[in-house]
């Protein structure tokens, strides 16, 4: 075996691994929200009762913000990716969340949807997540989503 076929085999193996990881996620049709461990994040003033309309982690200390983004990325993968796409790149089923406005105006719309989901004409387009995941998880996801933002 030459060096180049060895490399090709390696690349093919890596591609297969990546592909099966993606299809496992996409095939994951479980609609039960997956609990998010937010204990590493500071508690919010209003607890889970009073929902904020602006991301409390946006201007937090860098290490808190980084932790929020890290927790948010994983929470997104478990709860949102099956509709909104891996890495927030939508495959067309649901809006592409990379285009959400940055800052307070985007926060308000984000948290409205996160809390209540979206239903019309008796059909649930997006389930509500507010009560099951809690607002710390919501803002952690929002913090990560802002790192994926694009205008293009
Ligand atoms: C079952 C599929 C599904 C899941 C799971 C889901 N969403 Fe959605 N989401 C949708 C659909 C469909 C819409 C568009 C609803 C509409 O326009 O009425 C939407 C809309 C949104 C919007 C508004 C986007 C815009 O541009 O108006 C946000 C923000 C959002 N979702 C966040 C999330 C987050 C965060 C999660 C995970 C915690 C999540 N969604 C999980 C289907 C889903």
UniProtKB/TrEMBL annotation:
> Which Pfam families does the entry mention?
Cytochrome_CBB3
Which positions are tagged coiled coil? Answer: none
InterPro entries in the cross-refs: c550_proteobact, Cyt_c-like_dom, Cyt_c-like_dom_sf
List the PROSITE patterns: CYTC
- Entry keywords, A to Z: Heme, Iron, Metal-binding, Signal
Record domain Cytochrome c: where = 67-149
Signal peptide range: 1-27
Name this polypeptide is given: Cytochrome c-550 PedF
Which species is listed as the source?
A: Novosphingobium organovorum
Q: What is the gene name?
A: pedF
């Amino acid at each position: 075996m030459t060096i180049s076929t060895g490399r090709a085999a390696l690349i093919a193996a890596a591609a297969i691994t990546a592909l099966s990881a993606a299809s496992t996620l996409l095939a994951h049709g479980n609609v039960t929200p997956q609990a998010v461990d937010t204990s590493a994040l500071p508690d919010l003033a209003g607890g889970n009762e009073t929902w904020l309309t602006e991301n409390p982690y946006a201007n937090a200390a860098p290490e808190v913000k980084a932790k929020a983004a890290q927790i948010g990325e994983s929470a997104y993968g478990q709860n949102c990716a099956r509709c909104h796409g891996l890495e927030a790149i939508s495959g067309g089923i649901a809006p592409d969340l990379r285009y959400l406005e940055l800052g307070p105006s985007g926060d308000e719309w984000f948290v409205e949807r996160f809390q209540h989901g979206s239903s019309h004409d008796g059909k649930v387009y997006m389930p509500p997540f507010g009560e099951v995941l809690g607002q710390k998880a919501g803002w952690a996801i929002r913090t990560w989503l802002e790192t994926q933002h694009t205008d293009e």
